[in-house]
Amino acid sequence: MMSRSYTNLLDLASGNFPVMGKEKERKRFPRVMTVPGSIAELDDDQTNSVTSENPSSVAGERMIIVANLLPLKAKRRPDNKGWNFSWNEDSLLLRVKDGLPEDMEVLYVGSLSVDVDPIEQDDVANYLLEKFKCVPAFLPPHLLGKYYDGFCKKQLWPLFHYMLPFSADHGGRFDRSMWEAYVSVNRLFSQKVVEVLNPEDDFVWIHDYHLMVLPTFLRRRFVRLRMGFFLHSPFPSSEIYRTLPVREEILKALLNSDLIGFHTFDYARHFLSCCSWMLGLEYQSKRGYIGLEYYGRTVGIKIMPVGIHMGHIESTMKLADKEKKFEELKHQFEGKTVLLGVDDMDIFKGINLKLLAMEQLLKQHPKWQGRIVLVQICNPARGKGIDLVEIKAEIEESCHRINKEFGKPGYEPIVFIHRPVSISERMSYYSIAECVVVTAVRDGMNLTPYEYTVCRQGVSGAETGSNLSGPKKSMLVISEFIGCSPSLSGAIRVNPWNFESTAEAMNEAISMAESEKELRHEKHYRYLRTHDVAFWSRSFLQDMERTCADHFSKRCWGIGLGFGFRVVALDPNFRKLSVDDIVAAYCRSKSRAILLDYDGTLMPPTSIIKTPSSQIISVLNRLCGDPNNTVFMVSGRGRESLSSWFSPCKKLGLAAEHGYFFRWPQHEDWETYGQGSEFGWMQLAEPVMKSYTEATDGSEIEQKESSLVWHYQDADPGFGFAQAKEILDHLESVLANEPVAVKSGQFIVEVKPQGVSKGIVAEKIFTSMAEKGKQADFVLCIGDDRSDEDMFEIIGSAVSRRILPYNTEVFGCTVGQKPSKAKYYLDDTSEVVTMLGSVAEASDSPVSSDNESDISV
């Protein structure tokens, strides 16, 4: 029995795609999700792929949150028989559901922080699904080490924090086996998601760098799955990211998501720059939303810093008050001004830089000696990170040195706490701290300043003067390199590497007037109250819904192998041009118009030799030899090139420079668009273009008879794109009163006379044929770029505008599978030439041999 996957591929190969329905009928849509072949890294049991025709077991929309760790705490029972599980109240992912609709069910997929014996795994999995709606992914020990401590912590984590492996003992070299373990774990997670997934109703939200290739595994199975990804770490600049050996694999995997989220615009900008550099993708901003066009799909880019859960902080403060820890700390540091640092033991947290700044503060401002204390809480490292032993030794040495130099009996300027600190104890430290200092050299978000600000506000409704009322003032000294920095405009931002300026910022913070501290605190608290974790998750879901809104209005199918897999999404009416269909229509017709672009349509864009081959000349002459055919080459090239190249084709009409120059078949003279133009504007435009050419390495100017074109294909992609925007605005301003149009295209900015377009050429040809009594009943128009869209637009509306008769068979065809106003496509230039050859063979006229051998190739 032939599998459904295989028959889908046969349909795709023949251009017969499933017919799309309406949004409300989406459960009946067939899903085409398989591709021919696979690689070991993506061996995903394709024969067992789930199709959308399987009935959903659960009605209604659900959110499946996928992360490395489940938001659970696990503890072995005292009798060593089984486990006790509870929610991890400190987990951010547990709070995501607060921003989702009340009737939306939330499931979690992730691993556990403990090792569960294989014998117990089935029982644990069933219990967690039933009691907590959690699906555990049990990672084999031989994969876990290479996946988490290996690829995640020794490859991605350092790289995303701008640390390059310059030597084998500094950062670690790329290890292919670690990458393979990373891929294997991501595949295992995908299998766990599929176990509970209802593809028509569910949203999938993937979190953080541990699962960056998971979108590809899921997209291969479900091309219309609504899927988002949020990166909680920084995304490095393109210069750093491009050093990763598997850079394109990860980028392409992320682009299989519908929405990709980042904390800051900087992180998003770096990602977009990488997409431009490596994949040639340029983003577009429309009505405040940023999107990348990727094979007909719009991948949304979301910029939204995560918030905190206000209610959880307040309840923790009440717990801390009951534990009397606040009173104990207040007594311990009585008469002292407390600065507080709360960081993980990590090389990127800049803890020693903070200690050096404290040392500098005590030296430069002796008045604070004996009066100021820096409490530095260091949470134990989350994994086997880089240089942990060395950084811990350095911190302890600095603490010892500073306390020895500035301490005295009963006073130590540095209080170093290196142990797990509960959140309630942390709240007590926040309550007594006059200022929180964060000097991370690179950090994704860092919620410590948020927690501190909310804690200093106190609990609403608490009695004035109680521990819970809060002083309602706070000061922050934070690194400019952390994700929360842009959100906290009242904080004092510092470059942590300059510990002298950090010391001055710390002095400014604790010396500031009380009224100023209150104003800054109020500004921060107002922001945090309205931008909490519920706001963050609600906003992400809304953008995911918006981005996925047209999933079921397009024809979607998967192509590509391995991590080159992607989904092509096109208009339901957009299909591959069938040679049999067009030959049949050609034979039925009596008067035909055939309009062809040249570069990228008949000639491959990568070809160095641009002159037409003898095969192209032969095909064109055979088409022109039929008296029922009117054949035109409509190109952006100059008339001299076209006249020379196509001189053997005497019956071929030519339109040069997008139609500014026009030559009818069997004529020698060229017509000019309109009454001709004055080209004085070139003296204004050329100096502008020259200045940008000098400033943009890799750019050049092409001067045609009727237009000027600035090319930047060989320039730096990011800089060239930025310069193109600038030159477009500059030229529009300079030429505002001139009869010209300034337009941008693919790696070009062009200035040409107003009204000149390939669409006007098409309309002119149709009108002329009608005047001669040969009104076209067959139109074939083929092109590949933005300028050809004008032709597609004209022929698409020509029948309704009565330029063509109602029974005209119209075939607008673009080259390549991409969004277009054309109704059909062919994959490449070779298919175009082959199709034209088939049409020529069907012609009733004898083959013409107008000097076919005269062309020199």
TrEMBL record:
CDD domains: GT20_TPS (cd03788), HAD_TPP (cd01627). Its EC number is 2.4.1.15. Keywords: Glycosyltransferase, Phosphoprotein, Transferase. It catalyses: D-glucose 6-phosphate + UDP-alpha-D-glucose = alpha,alpha-trehalose 6-phosphate + UDP + H(+). It comes from the Eukaryota. One of its GO terms (molecular function) is alpha,alpha-trehalose-phosphate synthase (UDP-forming) activity. GO terms for biological process: trehalose metabolic process. SUPFAM superfamilies: HAD-like, UDP-Glycosyltransferase/glycogen phosphorylase. In the N-terminal section; belongs to the glycosyltransferase 20 family. In the C-terminal section; belongs to the trehalose phosphatase family. NCBIfam families: HAD-SF-IIB, T6PP. PANTHER family: TREHALOSE 6-PHOSPHATE PHOSPHATASE (PTHR10788:SF113), TREHALOSE-6-PHOSPHATE SYNTHASE (PTHR10788). This is alpha,alpha-trehalose-phosphate synthase (UDP-forming). It comes from Forsythia ovata.
